[in-house]
Amino acid sequence: MKDIWEESDLMGMGQWDVSIQMCGEKLREWDAKVYKKVPRRTNWLKRRLERLTNMRLSRGLVEEIREVEEELRVLRRSQETAAWQRCRPFVLRDGDRNTAYFHNKATERKKRNRITRMVDKDGVMKEEKEEIAEIVVDYFNELSTTSRPQINIDDLGMINKCVTEEMNTELDNMFMMEEVKAGLKEMHPCKSPGPDGLPALFYKRYWDLIGAKITTVVLNFLNGGQMPEQLNYSHVVLIPKKKDPTNMKDLRPISLYDSIVFVRANDREATVNADILRRYEGLSGKKVNLDKCETSFSNNLESNIRESTKSILVMREVEWHDRYLGLPTLLGRSKKVSFASIKDRIWKKLQGWKEKLLSRDGKEVLIKSVAQAIPNYAMSCFKLPTTFCHEFESIIRKLWWGSSGGKNGIHWKNRGFMCRPKVEGGLGFHNFEAFNEALLAKQLWRLYSQPHSLLARIYKARYHPHACPWEVGLGAAPSYAWRSIMGARQLLIQRVRWRIGNGKCINIWQDRWLGGEGSGRVINPTRLLHENACVSTLIDENNGCWRDDLIKEVFFAVDYERIKSIHISRRLPEDKLC
Question: Which of 231, 358, 369, 471 counts the highest number of beta carbons within 10 A?
Answer without folding.
Answer: 358
